[in-house]
Design brief:
alpha/beta; Rossmann fold; about 20% strand; globular; Bact_response_regulator
């Protein structure tokens, strides 16, 4: 089985812990990592990529010191190693302009405002990972029971 990673980035430890806790039901088949800064996330992504692991989804807060979430997601979208990585902006402070930039420049797949609905976040990640597997041509059979069945059916047509 391939090593599938979801990376969550937020400079506020309590928010980051809440996201990780909400994604716990996915940990049976996904490795969920947490980072407290954009730089830490980029380092982790480089390390995972060097080990032949996949970064399936990157979830980032927007307002962070040094590099914003939109800047991080934009930088990742320009790196060919992560062309299929799905990106989610999870924030309470992005402006309308920030959101448009995230969608148009960073290729953000989903946007969640804080506070988010845990079940919606789980279903979003499940769907995005399913799309990722098909986009990359990874054998999805080992993960089939965990995947978004609607997406699987659509992709198999």
């Amino acid at each position: 089985m391939e090593k599938l990673n979801v990376i969550c980035v937020d400079d506020q430890r309590e928010v980051l812990s809440a996201v990780i806790q909400d994604l716990e039901p996915l940990s049976a088949w996904l490795n969920v990592e947490d980072c407290e800064s954009a730089d830490e996330a980029l380092e982790l992504m480089d390390e995972l990529d060097a080990n032949g692991e996949w970064i399936t989804v990157l979830i980032s807060d927007h307002v962070m010191p040094v590099m914003t979430g939109v800047e991080l997601l934009t930088k990742v979208s320009k790196d060919s190693r992560y062309a299929s990585t799905k990106k989610v902006l999870l924030t309470g402070q992005a402006t309308h302009t920030d959101t448009i930039t995230a969608i148009n420049t960073a290729g953000v797949s989903h946007y969640f405002e804080k506070p988010w609905n845990a079940q919606e976040l789980i279903e979003c990640v499940r769907s995005l990972v399913t799309h990722f597997l098909f986009d990359q041509g990874i054998d999805y059979q080992a993960y089939l029971e965990h995947l978004d069945q609607q997406v699987v059916l659509e992709r198999l047509r």
